[in-house]
Amino acid sequence: MENTARRILSALILISLLHFSLCSNRNLPQHYKMQNYKTCMSNNNTYCVFEFKITPENNNTEIWAVLRENQINPLQFDHSILHRMICMPNSVSPESHGKQTIQNELADFNVTVDLLETQCEQHFNFSYFKTFLWLFVATYLIIVVRATATHYESMHDSKRACKVFSWYKAFSVIENCQKILMNNTNKDFQRLKAIQGFRVFNIILVIFWHTVFSLIIMYITDIKELEQNYENPLFYYLMFAGAFSVQIFFVISTLLLTNQVLTIYKREGKFTLHYCGILILNRIFRFLPTLIIVIMLTKSGIYDGSPHTIKLRNENILNCMNSWWLTVFQLTFILPFHQICVPGYWYLSIDTFYYTMTLLILFIILKFNMNLPKITGILIGITTLSFTSYIYIRKYSFMLQPLPEQMRQLMKSMAIQNIYTAPLCSWTSSQIGILLGYFYFNNKEKKITINKKLQILWWLTFITLPLLVLKLSTKNYTGVMEAIMGAILKPLFVFPFGLGFLGMSFGLGGVMKTLLESRIPQILSNVTYCTYLTHFFVVFAKGVFLNKLLSYKVHHMIFWATFDICLSFILGFLFTVLFENPGLYLQKKFIPQIKSNNKTN
């Protein structure tokens, strides 16, 4: 009797759950819908993107229960937010027509509708600019082809080889491919080869993170498939790791710069403001040619004619018209995030800011013979305390958690401006790089005896602490604890990686060191800068040829991530060969350099 009762109860629960699931799917409006874009354009109408919020009029309905459930679940999107692309007659108000359209669609649902956002496609007339751009590109490619042909001929004609000007070779595809494949024999480079390999895997993580973000803001067939991706633990923690990934670039950049400055100081016996100016000038011109090209391409509206890129085009083209020069000269840290020309380039600006501040800190320390570890430690403490107070007083969240709804709202979120991209947010990570660079410089000639205990300690530091930080970052905190965690999690994440790099420079790391120093990562590391710059053109181009919803299933994530990563590196390789390496040659030819014996060119 008891067993029968249990079976009946189990059956009732199963039926209830099944009924609830079916009702949920049936009663919830479709998350994304879009009208035909080509038909709209052929009729000379206006195509608009809308965001609506629905609220059940009766809190006792099943739809209210479903919406309430997924608003509580952090691994789900807010299904009360609906997205529509609607064709608008030019004679009507977009807001009123859009709201009337959604109300007609939801007539059978007992809900009220609020309009959250409207963006209609803007048409920019850049005919002269586009003509100039494509003429410039065509002329430049002719120069590259001619330089490559001349270089090839000189390789097979010893008499002609001496007549080939070095600047001509600078534009040769052959020459610039050889530079990518070339093995750098610099002693510091050889000791720190693992850093170059790690950069490659870190940029892969960045591309993956942006791939997910691009799919989240795309109009796809089934949003629940994306939610299922988050249920996979590997995917879940990779997303949180991606939120920290840029910190690794900051600590690497400062570590290498500190070693460079201390090397100059040891060689010259001084480090002056003049040297600081030369290094900053070279830093800016190092990125200039490629940045100019990608900004010109963005401003030209290369993704015109696609409904899926309307919001991106509206925002980026206007930003690039108003503030392109701030991106080119890496000064966008003074702008609100949503006003940056290509928002993803915020990293370059912040890194240049840290680069400049590191030079000034090192100049003061070396000028007055201060204790570098002590002063840097004090700065780390002050910065950490300042950021803790900043979070606590302003009641900000401790970090940008890459959960579904937070990612969907990313571009409108205050969190990305306040606790992710502001100069204060990651400065501690950069300052840690000063300490690591100092310890590397002072110990790089020493020999360390590697034993089993040291290897175990290295692995525990390199692997365990970052995993612990990832786990802590998935939790929620309040009050003082939230402020403290917001200030310490980023440096705690990057510090063990920095120690790991130091360990690998002395022979620790085993199979990890072998992997990072292997040939393929070393080759790819030579194109990471251009890969970072150009991968935005790849990951956000998914819907550029689509006139309907993007078909998406759970397993499509693997395809899109692989596709975006491979194509980004291919595009990065092309930009490195065509623009970055020729630019580096011109930089060394015409921009002052720090030379030995206190001479500058």
- Beta content: 5-15%
Structure annotation, total helices: 25
End-to-end CA span:
96 Å
How does the overall form come out from the CA principal axes?
Answer: globular
**Helical content (DSSP H or I, runs of 4+):** 55-70%
Radius of gyration: 27 Å
Number of domains: 3
Largest sheet: 4 strands, mixed
Rounded average pLDDT: 91
Q: Please state how the strands of the largest beta sheet are arranged side by side.
A: 1-3-2-4
Structure summary, number of beta strands = 4
Structural class: mainly alpha
List the uncertain runs: 12-26
Descriptive account of the structure:
Keywords: Membrane, Signal, Transmembrane, Transmembrane helix. This is Acyltransferase 3 domain-containing protein. It comes from Hypothenemus hampei (Coffee berry borer). With 601 residues, the protein is mainly alpha-helical. It folds into three domains: 29-120; 127-176, no CATH class; 183-592, no CATH class. It is 67% helix and 5% strand. It is built from 25 helices and four strands. A four-stranded mixed β-sheet has the order 1-3-2-4. Helix 8 (173-181) crosses helix 25 (556-590), helix 10 (193-216) packs across helix 12 (233-268) and helix 12 packs across helix 21 (479-505). The longest helix has 36 residues, at 233-268. The chain is globular, with a radius of gyration of 27 Å.
Topology, pairings included?
Layout: H1 2-27, E1 32-34, H2 37-42, E2 46-56, H3 62-72, E3 81-88, H4 94-105, E4 111-120, H5 127-155, H6 158-161, H7 166-170, H8 173-181, H9 187-191, H10 193-216, H11 223-230, H12 233-268, H13 273-299, H14 310-328, H15 346-367, H16 372-394, H17 404-408, H18 414-418, H19 427-443, H20 452-473, H21 479-505, H22 510-516, H23 519-525, H24 528-539, H25 556-590
Parallel strand pairs: 1-3
Antiparallel strand pairs: 2-3, 2-4
Domain Acyltransferase: 193-576
Transmembrane segments: 131-149, 200-220, 235-257, 278-297, 345-366, 375-393, 419-441, 453-472, 492-511, 523-545, 557-579
Organism: Hypothenemus hampei
